[in-house]
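Need a sequence for this fold. Nothing fancy.
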C-alpha cells in the first residue's frame, strides 16, 4: 500500500500540471470555422473555368456513356452531357480538408461485390488543387466512391 500512495500522488500532480498548461479557451472557439467551399470565396467575381476544369474519361459503362468529356464549373459548361448537375454533385461532396477524389483508405473494409467493368479517370483542377484520380466498381468501397460523384461519372448501376 505504501507504493500505491506515492504513485497516485505523482499521477495527480502530473494531471494537474497538464491541465494548467492548457489554454483558457479551446482553439476551435477562438477561430472561425472554415468554409466548406473555400474555392467559392477565393474566386468570387473572377472567371472560374480555368480553376475548376476537369476531364472525365469513361470506359465500360453499359449505358453507352463511354467517352471523354470536359467539365467547367463556376459557371458550368463543357462537353459533359450534364455539366451543371456534375458541378453541383462535386460541390455537394466537397468538404474542407477532405479530397473529394481521394481513394478509399487502405485499411477500409469493403464488401466483396462487383459493380461491373466500368472505369473512369478524372484529371484537371478542382478547388484550386490538381486532380488525377481513377475510379472503378471492383468492390463496395469503389462502387460507393463512384456513385457519390454521379452525374460527374455516369450512373453505372446494372
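Here you go.
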Amino acid at each position: 500500500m505504501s507504493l500505491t500512495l506515492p504513485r497516485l500522488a505523482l499521477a495527480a500532480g502530473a494531471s494537474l500540471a497538464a491541465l494548467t498548461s492548457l489554454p483558457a479557451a479551446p482553439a476551435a472557439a477562438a477561430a472561425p470555422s472554415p468554409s466548406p467551399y473555400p474555392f467559392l470565396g477565393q474566386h468570387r467575381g473572377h472567371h472560374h473555368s480555368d480553376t475548376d476544369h476537369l476531364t472525365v474519361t469513361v470506359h465500360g459503362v453499359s449505358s453507352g456513356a463511354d467517352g471523354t468529356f470536359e467539365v467547367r464549373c463556376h459557371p458550368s459548361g463543357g462537353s459533359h452531357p450534364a455539366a451543371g448537375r456534375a458541378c453541383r454533385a462535386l460541390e455537394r461532396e466537397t468538404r474542407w480538408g477532405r479530397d473529394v477524389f481521394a481513394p478509399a483508405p487502405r485499411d477500409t473494409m469493403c464488401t466483396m461485390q462487383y459493380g461491373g467493368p466500368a472505369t473512369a479517370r478524372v484529371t484537371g483542377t478542382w478547388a484550386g488543387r490538381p486532380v488525377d484520380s481513377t475510379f472503378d466498381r471492383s468492390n463496395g468501397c469503389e462502387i460507393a466512391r463512384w456513385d457519390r460523384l454521379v452525374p460527374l461519372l455516369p450512373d453505372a448501376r446494372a
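For context: The first helix runs from residue 4 to 20.
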